[in-house]
Amino acid sequence: MMKKKLYIGVGALAGLLLLAPQVMAQSDVVTSLRGHTAPNEDSRVPMTRRWQRDRDPIERDYVQQPPLIPHSTKGYRINIKFNKCLTCHSWSNYKEAGATKISQTHFSDRDENVLANIAPRRYFCNQCHVPQMDAKPLVENTFEPVRSLKAHH
Amino acid sequence: MADKQHTPQRGGIWDMFKRSSSRYSMGGLLLTGIAAGVIFWGGFNTAMEATNKEGFCISCHEMRDYVYEEYKDTVHYSNRTGVRATCPDCHVPKEWTYKMMRKIQASNELWHKALGSINTAEKFEAKRLQLARNVWRTMKKTDSRECRNCHNFESMDYTEQGRRAVVQHEKGLAGDKTCIDCHKGVAHSLPAMYEEDPSAAIGQ
């Protein structure tokens, strides 16, 4: 008697385990980070994107926008020993490099004390300034710059 | 006087060179000499070439663990065309005379290997600026000769370069600039640059 009950119980459990995924799949499709790729297939490699090549400075879209970087910064290092960006954009180097010099605001600490060199809080350029890729916007964007910032045509 | 010629044991090594051979034929001596020359010269060059391989460079942990690891992250190690410049391509001259001079200089590196001057990451980092300056000085002096084995101004197509690169390269070619003046740290991490350019680093 006991044995029979055990068999029924195990059978029911096995049936449940076998059926459960199908039932769940029918009710709502769960998408994992792999997308709809089956576990035994190779996941699709996301398309590699390229940094935009050298171009003219990019217009700003709003007041106080950190200017975008109009060139690739691949391989550029910024650490305590060295800042690759400043080899062209620092005040001592910008003329020879033909680059934009860093803003005067970057020399002040948070208490508005003007320092002799770039302020540590402004040292990590790519915290605000970013290079551009050939990626399309993920969502539609209807943002328009104010008229004063628009280029005259 | 006459029996001086019949006492072959006399005299030093210089006399041996001046004395004419009484036993071996001229041709035999010549051929032996040529064969020995080929073997010694070939052996010498083979041995020198063996020290001119990346595997030899990174057989010491000082090179393998620090500079080689950094280089693996750069364009000279991996790039879209699949051309790779290994250690000796940049650090050993191609011409024989300059190569020999560099090899003799390398004995100093062996000495410092024995001393353990840069056998830890900390010691290496402390000496990095000095070591980098040595390389920069040499490259400046030789007009970046090793760079130009592959990168030549005459072979450059400016129209294929970025607009900033064109301007800089034309200025460099017209002026007295050499590759290393701008392209520092292309294959290895840079040292603390505050002394070199205080405007491009946070210094103390």
Distance between the termini of chain A: 92 Å
The number of helical elements of chain A comes to: 3
What is the count of DSSP helices of chain B, taking H or I runs of 4+ residues? 10
Q: β content of chain A, as a range?
A: under 5%
Q: Biggest sheet of chain A: strands side by side, in what order?
A: 1-2
Per DSSP, what share of the residues of chain B sits in E-state strands of 2 or more residues? under 5%
CATH architectural category of one domain in chain A: Orthogonal Bundle
What share of residues of chain B is helical?
Answer: 40-55%
Radius of gyration of chain A, whole Å: 29 Å
Structural class of chain B: mainly alpha
Q: What global shape of chain B is seen? A: elongated
Low-confidence region ranges of chain A: none
- The number of E-state strands of chain A comes to 2
Give the termini distance of chain B in whole angstroms.
83 Å
Briefly characterize the structure.
Chain A is mostly helical and 153 residues long.
Structure description:
- The complex is a heterodimer of chains A (153) and B (204).
- Helix content of chain A is 22%, strand content 3%.
- With 153 residues, chain A is mainly α.
- In chain A, a hairpin with a 2-residue loop joins β1 and β2.
- The radius of gyration of chain A is 29 Å and the shape is elongated.
- Chain A has a domain of 41 residues: Flavocytochrome C3, Chain A (Flavocytochrome C3, Chain A, domain 2, Orthogonal Bundle).
- Chain A has three helices and two strands; from the N terminus they run αββαα.
- A two-stranded antiparallel ribbon of chain A has the order 1-2.
- With 204 residues, chain B is mostly helical.
- Chain B has a domain of 115 residues.
- Chain B is elongated.
- The mean pLDDT of chain B is 89.
- The interface between A and B is medium-sized, with 23 and 22 residues.
